[in-house]
Amino acid sequence: MKNISKIIDxxxxxxxxxxxxxxxxxxxNSNRDIMMPLKISNGTLVIAVxxxxxxxxxxxxxxxxxxNILNIAGSSGINDLKFVIDPKSFNIKRSEEKPEKKxxxxxxxxxxxxxxxxxxxxxxxxxSETFAKIELLWExxxx
Length: 143
What we know:
By secondary structure, the chain is an alpha+beta fold. It contains seven helices and three strands.
């Protein structure tokens, strides 16, 4: 039971406990929820992140995090950080359902009518059919 005191007492506890207890101070409010300390291994603090994008961004904060660890945990023996992608640690729910794609159909008659209007406005015949289809799709999509 004497190990419990190390976890509870932040002043005299081991380095990892101090890091966990002060994680918000170490990473800041905006990063605490997207970085999670996992373990210390051979002088490296292993930190879980939810995805590759966060991992790439986290590298920018590496020096500051190490500096904050030194200030809070003292000479903890940590001299490097390793960011590992582990979405399971963050309880991220991904929707299995994809939104249904809306299929928009354009009749040849509609296209011909819109093409004629565009040609009357000075659009070349080569471009008018393409522009007609685009405009008709846009109109139907936004109805």
